[in-house]
From TrEMBL:
Residues 4-64 form the HTH tetR-type domain. The lineage of its organism: Bacteria, Pseudomonadati, Pseudomonadota, Betaproteobacteria, Nitrosomonadales. Residues 27-46 bind DNA. It comes from Methylobacillus methanolivorans. Keywords: DNA-binding, Transcription, Transcription regulation. This is TetR/AcrR family transcriptional regulator.
């Protein structure tokens, strides 16, 4: 097995454990046992558990942004259409059975200390997602794209939390409806 394959195997096992049991509940010894590797091998690829968690978050966030970008590719260029399509994609992601919410939520809850590197990385991912939405809002010529981007992310982050606590509650659908109203209002000014 190549070094890249071994790193990927460890990250895959850790990711499955983090998503199913939680990050803090998945200790290094459990990850080593599940991956069938030596402790030295894990630490060769990930010098600390925090770096393993950050790699997990980065991969999830990168995959999420790539999925959003592909979902928006070649869509109508009418003002607001991409933002409305983005809302549909966010809704789909949150309500999907596999989804555990937005990529950074799990870690931000398990690492609430603002000085912890995992918490700081989660904040960075949240800001990157908001910047992604703001860039789309700028493309459409909306009024106050920064404000609109923040409002959209707040709606979907809140809906993600509600759906996590009460699956099937309809919160995500209502967040999408509210976001579309905000988008249309922003375009009409």
């Amino acid at each position: 097995m190549t070094l890249v394959d071994m790193r990927t195997k460890i990250l895959n096992v850790a990711s499955n454990l983090f998503e199913s049991r939680g990050i803090n509940a998945s200790g290094v010894d459990t990850i080593i046992a599940e991956a069938g590797v030596a402790k030295a091998t894990l630490y060769k690829h990930f010098p600390s558990k925090d770096l393993l968690v950050i790699a997990f978050l980065k991969r999830n966030a990168d995959n999420f942004i790539e999925w959003l970008t592909l979902g928006l590719k070649d869509k109508s260029t009418e003002p607001g259409d991409k933002l409305i399509q983005l809302c549909s994609l966010l809704e789909k992601h949150i309500v999907t059975q596999r989804s555990k919410g937005l990529p950074f939520h799990l870690a931000s809850v398990e690492f609430p200390d603002p000085s912890h590197p995992v918490h700081q990385f989660s904040v960075r991912l949240s800001k990157e997602l908001q910047a992604y939405i703001v860039d789309l809002a700028k493309e459409t010529g909306t009024v106050e794209p920064e404000s609109l981007g923040q409002q959209i992310i707040m709606l979907f982050e809140g809906a993600s939390l509600v759906e996590r606590l009460s699956p099937g509650s309809g919160a995500t659908s209502r967040a999408k409806q509210a976001a579309i109203l905000l988008i249309r209002s922003s375009l009409n000014h």
